[in-house]
Amino acid sequence: MSSISQLNVYPIKSCAGISRDTVRLTPHGLEHDRDWMVVDARGRFVTQRTHPRMALVQPALSGDRLEVRAAGMATLTLGLDAVTLAGAPSLPVTVWGDTLTALDAGDAAARWFSDFLDTPLRLVRFDPGVARTASRKWTGDVTANVHFADGYPLLVIGEASLADLNARLSGKGVDPIPMNRFRPNLVLTGIEAYEEDYADTFGIGTPGGDVLLRVVKPCSRCPIPTIDQLRGAPDPRWPNEPTDTMSTYRADSRLDGALTFGQNAIVLAGAGQKLAVGQPVEVELRFEA
Fold it and tell me: Alpha-carbon distance 60 to 25, whole Å?
């Protein structure tokens, strides 16, 4: 039987994740996942693609606060409560092809990120009154909400898939890489390598009711998996790994040859329930005519 081995939340888009034993599922993914985003002076989203040191920014959820830390910086504290949301000014922002209104996190947060990343930036929070939806090209007849994630509420990867990739890396004399290079929300154990590629749904039983996730799209990989999440830069010994190795076997014709690793999923049922590490997962495979 497969089960959940990791639950990861990334409160600030492209900054470090938080490993959780339990976390509430919402219609737009795990609670607080990608609720915040760093933007440039034009309001366009900023990620590790251009600012790899974002990997060194460590958010932490503490009661009704989000605390943000990095070496050499004072702790930045942000409120999670409704009062903080109600008093925040609006700011137009762009994430990929979507332009929407977000809530500005204030001048102190802007100074913190501008100082750490050495460029003028602001931090914004997703406005719960705004609707952003995943591409219907992939979700079909389901309207799936998403906050500041690249495109879909959840990213799911099997442990065996990473083990297979690491075996290929080791065969080239390259050190194995950890799962955090791929920034998944759910990691599954007990399934075969790349079995998630052929899954239709993941069913998870919880004390409060069943959760059903539908796999909708392979996750195309940008250069972020080449960034060592502990150093905020590529490993100088193998700056193009694991991309070079993935290029030999992970090109996906459905995405015009893009390299894929992991699967994007949406929430069909169970929003409001709590997921927990160790919960069994029933994988329903997709059979195409």
Answer: 18
Q: What is the pLDDT of residue 288?
A: 66
Give Dmax (Cα) for the chain: 57
Residue type, 26: T
What confidence score (pLDDT) does residue 193 get?
Answer: 98
Within 10 angstroms of residue 60's Cβ, the number of other Cβ atoms is 13
Instruction: List phi, psi (to 5°) of 250.
Output: -115, 20
The residues, any chain, with a CB within 8 Å of residue 96's CB and separated by 6 or more, are 45, 150, 151
φ/ψ of 10, rounded to 5, equals -120, 85
Q: Which residue intervals of 122-280 are DSSP H helices?
A: 136-139, 159-171, 243-246
Domain count, the chain: 1
Whether 145 and 133 have beta carbons less than 8 Å apart is answered as yes
Low-confidence residues in the chain, pLDDT < 50: 289
Nearest to 202 by CA among 269, 250, 142, 140: 269
CA 144/CA 153 separation, integer angstroms: 8
Residue 129 sits in which domain range?
A: 2-285
201 is written with which tokens?
A: 């749904």
What is the three-class DSSP state of 112?
helix
Q: How far is CA 226 from CA 10, 230, 235, in A?
A: 18, 12, 8
Q: Does residue 242 have a cis peptide bond before it, meaning omega lies within 30 degrees of 0?
A: yes
Give pLDDT tens digits for 129-168.
999 999 999 999 999 999 999 999 999 999 999 999 999 9
Would the pTM of this model clear 0.90, i.e. be above it? yes
* Number of CB atoms found within 10 A of residue 28's CB: 27
**In this structure, are residues 275 and 206 in contact, taking their beta carbons and an 8 Å threshold?**
yes
